[in-house]
Amino acid sequence: MAKVVVIGAGFAGHTTALYLADRLKKKHEVVVVSNRDVFSYLPSWVWVGVGHMKPEKTIFKVKPVYDRKGIKFVHAAVREIHPDAGEQFILADEVGSGKETRIDYDYVVVAPGPFLNFAATPGLGPEKGFTNSICSLPHAVTTRDNYLALCERMKKGENVKIVIGTGHPGATCQGAAFEYIVNVHKDLVKRGLRDKADILWLSNEPELGDLGVNGVQIKRNGHTMVSEEFIKSVFNDHGIRYQIQSGVTKVEEGKIHWQNYEGDEGTTDFDFAMLIPAFKGQPFKYVNKEGEDITAKLNNPGGFFLVDGKYGLPYPELAQTPEAWPSKYQNPTYPNMFAAGIAFAPPGPISKPFTNKNGLLIAPAPPRTGMISGAIGRVVAMNVADLIEKGEITHGERMTEMVAACIASMGDSLWDGNAVTIVMRPVVPDRKKYNNPYGRDLFVSHLEMGLSGAWMKYMLHYTFMWKFKGKFGWKLIPE
Amino acid sequence: MEQQFTKSEKFWMNFKLYQLYRFIALNIKIYTVAVQSKFK
Question: Do A416 and B29 touch (CB under 8 A)?
């Protein structure tokens, strides 16, 4: 009987655990270790941040689901992983008691989600800084409270400056920030306060609408349309100003410091800011049987777990090498170790990086959240099950093959709401397979804005909560 | 001139019957391409 330990109960970890339990049918042991005992549906936090959805609607306790599926749940924070043969175990501290727990494993899947690296930008973040975030549920709730307090000030006649975007030159998740800025705009319109706010989009993207994936390109009425035109229309239509190619370097009370591509340094004043931090890997320590710290051999400098990708290629070469992206998400040194979701180390950025004359690298990191996380979680589950049952791996899906669909909310009303529906294949351009400058399948890739998107966003919330609760037919719902 | 959506585009974006058609069409499209991924 093999024992598989999944670290993390988010999109990637939870999906991995559900598929493993389904495939292994209690013949083998599946254990989930997580410092959080709830599953969180992150895409809806954008609505929590403007007070349009109750926080509790975006979470559920995982233990009852795992009990039903025969998965063991350990509510603990992982600290150390000992991967050497014969002595393969995890050390974790139980949440609440702080008691150290040892969990032995035959296979381990590292899927703990990102560590929100607010410290990389001095003054960033809600805890030790001056900005807001929607990257965790407590942050989204604080953001909502701060936003509603701002609305009260506006009601009294005060004019305010709102800045939304990325809070680090290497930040990702521009999509979530885009959703938030448009939802804030729509909410202020409904409150009759829009004329009191100057709203600015501040981002590290090389082009507007890049979204960390080199933009989205589609074929419409015989000609190619790019997301830059689309997002520009949205911002112009909504009176949202934008500043791109800018990396935030420091935040002070009411003042954001940034540098742009030209190397200019500048500041932007704000009354309310929601800036996405840089992400890094969770700070797990890897220890060999001699007791030596081998973390640097298993992680990249960002703390993300190395898998079967081709690392170290310069961007121009990487952009032409789709096979550099991992397919099995398996560590080459320890074949019983896998990573899923944002935890795996990507071979490089998708968007073109830029270093300005001051040596500041402004480069959006590749997004690996949502549908991508889920799809990787499923591939990893299938591969672990393959290894246990057949002794060989038969599944693989690179981000250069993967399709992703994203519904970016632009107002949550079912009557006059709006959302952008984005479908792209592949997520990472494959310029060898697709004979166009974008490396994308322009027949499948799609970008559309309308009320139907708002309905889709609602439908996805309830459909995915159903799926992640492992209820009847959950496997029929794609990741 | 600033790039903006045309009046016609805005009309179709909120025309309920057309959006119902788009809702069904988009669901079919997304489901079809996402399910292909399941067999990889």
Answer: no
> Hey, are the CB atoms on A233 and B5 less than 8 Å from each other?
yes
Q: Amino acid identity, residue B23?
A: F
- Per-residue model confidence as pLDDT tens for chain A (479 residues): 999 999 999 999 999 999 999 999 889 999 999 999 999 999 999 999 999 999 999 999 999 999 999 999 999 999 999 999 888 999 999 999 999 999 999 999 999 999 999 999 999 999 999 999 999 999 999 999 999 999 999 999 999 999 999 999 999 989 999 999 999 999 999 999 999 999 999 999 999 999 999 999 988 778 888 999 999 999 999 999 999 999 999 999 999 999 999 999 999 999 999 999 999 999 999 999 999 999 999 999 999 999 999 999 999 999 999 999 999 999 999 999 999 999 999 999 999 999 999 999 999 999 988 899 999 999 999 999 999 999 999 999 999 999 999 998 888 889 989 999 999 999 999 999 998 999 999 989 999 999 999 999 999 999 999 999 999 999 999 88
- Chain A CB contacts of B13 below 8 Å: 418, 449-451
d(CA A138, CA B12): 38
Chain A, nearest residue to B24 by Cα: A452
What is the ipTM, given to two decimal places?
Answer: 0.94
Question: How many CA atoms does the CB half-sphere of A351 hold within 13 Å?
Answer: 30
> In B, which residues are within 8 Å of A418 by CB distance?
13-14
Interface contact flag, A418 B13, Cβ < 8 Å? yes
From the CA of A76, how many Å to the nearest CA of chain B? 31
CB contact under 8 A, A451 and B31: no
Rounded CA-CA distance A463/A350 in Å is 30
B2–A236 CB contact, under 8 Å: yes
Question: Could you tell me the domains of chain A?
Answer: 3-116+279-357+365-390 (3.50.50.60)
Residues of B in contact with A423 (CB under 8 A): 29-30, 33
DSSP per-residue letters across A291-358: S-B-HHHHB-TTSPBP-SS-----HHHHTT-GGGS-SS-B-SS-TTEEE-GGGBPPSS-SSPPEE-TT
